[in-house]
């Protein structure tokens, strides 16, 4: 993003990131990081977001920031519990916590 934008603002709902230290440090080197904040509303025209209202997670204080684009990244689920060998087949994750296996019916929901 740093090569595409004049300014990058990262909004994160927690005070700290749970990612590895090196990528967080790299991100902080080029981005304005706002923690702990959430996006409370988006404002603009029918086809373009122009402003984002941010709310501080602790105090509730709000701040409006002008933007050209909004990129949403919810991260990923680090639980790899479904990525295991099951009998003679291999579990293939299709949806969250959904697994298909040669030993189980298609779409079988794994508990775990």
Descriptors:
FAD/NAD(P)-binding domain, mainly beta, globular, 112 residues, three-stranded antiparallel sheet, two-stranded parallel sheet, 9% helix, disordered C terminus
Average residue pLDDT: 76
Name of the CATH superfamily of the largest domain: FAD/NAD(P)-binding domain
Q: What is the CA-atom radius of gyration, in angstroms? A: 20 Å
**What is the fold-level CATH name, i.e. the topology of the largest domain?**
FAD/NAD(P)-binding domain
Structural class: mainly beta
Number of strands: 9
Low-confidence stretches: 85-112
Shape: globular
Give the number of helices. 1
Task: Tell me the β content.
Answer: 25-35%
Number of domains: 2
Helical content, roughly?
A: under 10%
The biggest sheet amounts to: 3 strands, antiparallel
The first-to-last residue Cα distance is 37 Å
Tell me the series of helices and strands, N- to C-terminal. EHEEEEEEEE
Query: Which CATH architecture of the largest domain would you pick?
Result: 3-Layer(bba) Sandwich
Strand order of the largest sheet: 3-4-5
Can you identify the CATH class of the largest domain? Alpha Beta
InterPro entries: FAD/NAD-bd_sf
Structure description:
This protein is mostly beta strands and 112 residues long. It folds into 2 domains: 8-66, FAD/NAD(P)-binding domain (3-Layer(bba) Sandwich), CATH 3.50.50.60; 76-106, no CATH class. It is built from 1 helix and 9 strands. It has one helix at residues 21-30; strands at 8-11, 31-34, 37-45, 48-56, 62-66, 85-86, 89-90, 92-93, 99-100. The strands form 4 sheets. It has a 3-stranded antiparallel β-sheet, with no helix packed on it. A two-stranded parallel ribbon has the order 1-2. A two-stranded antiparallel ribbon has the order 6-7. The longest helix is centred in the first third of the chain and has 10 residues, at 21-30. InterPro entries: FAD/NAD-bd_sf.
